[in-house]
Amino acid sequence: MLSYKPNILIVGPYTRYDYLEQFNASKHDFNFFFLEFVSPREESNKQYLNYGKAVYWSDFRNAFELLEYVKPLKVLFIFIESYNHVALNAACQVRGVHTFIIDHGILDVNINFRLNAHFSKQVTYKSLRKRIIFFSLLKERLMSRLFLRNTLKLLPPSFQKDLRQFIQIRSKNRFEEAIKTGHFNSRLPNTYITFSKKNFSFYLLQDKYISESAVRYIGIPLFDELANIKPSTSYSRTILFIDQPLATKKLLGWDVKYHSEFVSNLKYICQKLQYRLYIKLHPLQSIQEKKNWSEDHSNVILPDISSLKNILTETHVVLGFFSTLLLPLACLEHTTLITLENHPVGKLDVSKSFIDAGVAHPIYSLDELPWALENIEELHQRQLPNKKKFEEDWLYKFDGKAGERLRNILLSEEL
Prior knowledge:
This protein has 415 residues and is of the alpha/beta class. It has helices spanning 17-20, 63-70, 83-95, 109-112, 116-119, 128-136, 138-154, 157-170, 175-178, 197-207, 256-272, 287-294, 308-314, 326-331, 352-356, 369-374, 376-383, 387-394, 402-411, and strands at residues 7-11, 31-35, 52-55, 74-77, 98-102, 191-194, 215-217, 238-242, 276-280, 300-301, 317-320, 336-340, 342-343, 346-347, 361-363.
């Protein structure tokens, strides 16, 4: 083990609590630096200060200057997609700094590839605040652009050629389409830190030519606390619904109006059947979506993430679309998972991997929900024998030690 406290550079949207909390088991062993924005004015919160400090693209003339300042033992990318991401990864390869890509959520070929045509139609609307910030940071964005240009000049010829080709193709295509056209070595990390074999299969299709020796499986650090849940002996008529920002992101035909109607119908059905609803909101959901749940909420509770463990001890029914959070919830012995597969664009079986594995019962209309709830014990007995295999495929190990495994990888002198 290392005898000093090394620096680790994490590249990605570090203001997301779920990205940060996977480092809970590691935060006292490293000096963490976070990189994603051109300026601190782009940050949405300062929670990262509990883990480390941020650096910004516009503060450095090139990637080599950035590496010299941070002196990272290792660099962890959440994504390697932008021009600067690839330029930094290339500079790390030149300097011999080991780079990793670490999973940020479920990577499912049934979602990311099969439904790509539907996802590509999303329309993203920036808030007025974000638009104002964007146009007020022209100087910083210019500096970020120079960062890329200067790094290109300093790279060896083979890396220059590879990165230029990536920039040329990426400038005319979405990321998913760009990487289909060529094998860009500058974009590939040395090692993949991934939840499980199923998640890694996504990278095998996307990046091609990856060796099995380049992967380390860890499970999901964010959900370590859920691994040891002991269900209450008494049955409670509660449902945990895992919402998604489909309306906010304009995904699969959803909009705020459709979400409002959906919420009203679901609340009505649950109230009629005397079920209390716990709603796990997604951090990216809009204020209006949150209001849809809070209005007329006699049978609705909106808990924070810290309450989830307590809720799950008394909750046997889980309802949702597709979500990383559904992975551990489907593995709990006492839960029965119902997935909603109907969307404004049609019946899609978005949770196909869960359905095919036998750990989820799909419904294609809320009209089917009462039957599912009336037969919940039968559905549970169908799902129960399949949970262990699903855990092995998707969570590697659901033992509460994923964060430890991540920490050990970061401390390893072999990588």
